[in-house]
Amino acid sequence: MSFDAAFRSDDSYFGARPDPLLTEHVHQLDSRLPLLDVGMGQGRNAFWLAQRGFSVDGIEPSIVAHEKVCELVAEEGLSVHPYPCTFEEFEAQADSYGAVLALGLLPVLSREGIALLGSRVDQWLVEGGLFFVTAFTTDDPAYPRIARRWSKAGRHSFVDAQGNRRSWVEPGELPRLFEGYEVIHEREYMGPMHRHGDGPLHQHAIAEAVLRKS
Ligand SMILES: C[S@@+](CC[C@H](N)C(=O)[O-])C[C@H]1O[C@@H](n2cnc3c(N)ncnc32)[C@H](O)[C@@H]1O
Known about the structure:
Helices cover 26% and strands 27% of the residues. It is built from six helices and ten strands, in the order ααβαβαββαβαβββββ. S-adenosylmethionine binds at residues 3, 14, 19, 38-41, 44-45, 59-62, 65, 86-88, 103-105, 108.
C-alpha cells in the first residue's frame, strides 16, 4: 500500500502516541533551537514536541499526510511547519537544527538514501546537535518473507513490483552507519505487537539510537 493510501485509510496509521525514543530522551533537547522531523508522516512526533514548546519543521512527501498536518496546524496553532517534499529535495541552512528525527524512515530508504540522509543530517545539525534514528534489524520477523519474495536492491534492501522499498540493518549496525557521532543511547529490542489500520498484527525488531554531532 502506498503511504498516501495508508494515511487516507487511518488518521493515525503509525499510532497516535509519539515514538518511545523521543519520550524517553526529550529532556536532552534544547528548546531554543528548531527541530527537524524527516518523514514526519501524520505528525505524531512533531505535534507532541510542539505541545511541549518546541518549534518543529517537518518534511513529508505524502500529500495526504501533508494536507492533514496543515489542517491540524491551523486548528491547534502549534509551531509545526510542514514541507511537502522528500529530504533529498529539502533545502535548509547549514547548522540550523538542534535535533533531527528520522523515526521509521530508514526502513523505506535505499542504502544509498540512508548514506545521503547521513550527510544531510550532518549539514543541518548544529555542533552538539542530536540525531534520533530508528531502523529494523534483520531479526525482524518480516525479513525472511520479504527477502524471499521481493527483488534484492542492495544489502538487506528489497523492492516489490510497485516500487515499495524495505531495508534492514544488521544487529549492532545502526550507530556505525553514521560515523563521527557520539553515541548517547543505543538499544535493540523486539517491539510490541501492533497493527496499522485494519492490517495484520505484527511486531518489529527495532534498533534505535540517539547520536550527538561532535
Ligand atoms: C514509516 S513512516 C514514519 C512516519 C513518522 N515518522 C512516524 O513515526 O509516524 C515513513 C515516512 O517517511 C516518508 N518518506 C519516505 N521517503 C521519504 C523521503 N525520501 N524523504 C522524506 N520522507 C520520506 C513516508 O512518506 C512516510 O510518511
